[in-house]
Specification:
The chain is of the alpha/beta class and about 325 residues long. The protein is about 45% helix and about 15% strand. The radius of gyration is 25 Å and the shape is elongated. Its EC number is 3.1.1.61. Keywords: Hydrolase.
């Protein structure tokens, strides 16, 4: 939010363009306090986006919490469609819809932030003839999003925040290039159409890519691999969408949670075998003791794997004593 307020301070009320903003918000927030805050920092008229609201120059529209904000011709669509790159609202969804409907008249901007949202969206904008602008990562409080955008897209301008307002004023003052119908790739047109309807059909996604032996981490459905443009992406027919990097991170977290569950179940089995070995006698007790020693080895290996993996990822350890041998 500090970066956003610093940018809008540089934009005048006479700006001959609409400004559409996706800020990653908590689903239970209202968005109104942020709109009020923005209104105190800019002469633009700031408001929370509402479905079917017309686009007007000199106006800033903020995507509501837990809703995608899309562009359809000269008005907004506000929907609760599937998350894209784990976000709703998502910059990727907004950028794609704007690019499809306004082509070279779109300027996509990625500011400071975490992870990958906006990277694929800038690629959509570039494929439709628009302009990509990214905050200089060295100038960003959180450089992850700008760095991801630079890695995944042919960006036109990389500038520090205090120069971005002047750049945008220059860009919107340039003569616009006419949007030729054929200049919008058919795959993006289809994806935007699906997003407007919220959910697609499998035959539609078949036109976008190739079905692969991977499952969607959000709904468990089959994933399709999309190779158009510069970005490798995946999506399911219900609309969940991921860049390859975002999918890798999502599956990493899912795998980690599964392994913690497995560790818990093995600990419970160890406790049960301990009780059986203590209460048993003779050969039967010795057999339970043998099983107990075997599962202790598996527990120690799994625990070591989890903790070493967390250290490599820079994640907090759940229990500082978990690297000790199990009893």
């Amino acid at each position: 939010m500090p970066a956003l307020t610093q940018l809008v301070e540089q934009l005048p009320a006479s700006l001959p363009a609409a400004v559409l903003v996706v800020q990653h918000l908590s689903p239970d927030s209202t968005g109104e306090p942020l709109v009020n805050r923005l209104n105190h920092h800019t002469d633009l008229r700031c408001q929370l986006a509402v479905n079917n609201m017309p686009l007007e120059a000199g106006t800033l529209y903020l995507a509501p919490p837990d809703r995608h904000m899309l562009v359809k011709d000269d008005y907004l669509l506000v929907t609760k469609g599937p998350r894209e790159n784990n976000y709703r609202p998502a910059a990727d969804a907004l950028f794609r819809s704007a690019a499809v409907h306004h082509g070279p008249n779109v300027i996509g901007v990625v500011l400071t932030g975490m992870l990958h949202d906006g990277t694929a969206g800038l690629d959509f904008i570039k494929r439709c003839g628009g302009t990509a602008v990214v905050q200089d990562p060295h100038d960003a409080e959180f450089p992850s999003m700008p760095e991801s955008a630079l890695h995944g897209t042919d960006v036109d301008y990389v500038v520090p925040l205090d120069m971005m307002g002047r750049l945008l004023l220059e860009l919107v003052g340039m003569p616009s290039r006419p949007l030729v119908e054929a200049s919008v790739p058919e795959d993006l047109r289809l994806e935007a159409s699906i997003a407007e309807r919220v959910v697609g059909q499998t035959y539609e996604v078949d036109q976008l890519g190739q079905q692969v032996p991977l499952t969607c981490p959000d709904c468990g459905g089959t994933l399709w691999e999309l190779r158009q443009g510069k970005m490798l992406r995946y999506r399911c027919h219900t609309g969940h969408s991921f860049t390859a990097d975002a999918l890798l991170e999502k599956t990493q977290h899912a795998m980690e949670e599964t392994l913690w569950v497995a560790l818990r179940m093995m600990e419970e089995r160890k406790n049960l075998l301990t009780s059986m070995a203590v209460r048993g006698e003779g050969l039967w007790s010795a057999q339970q003791e043998e099983k107990l020693n075997e599962i202790k080895k598996h527990i120690n290996r799994l625990r070591k794997f989890l903790i070493n993996g967390q250290k490599e990822e820079g994640l907090p350890l759940r229990n500082s004593t978990e690297d000790q041998p199990t009893n």
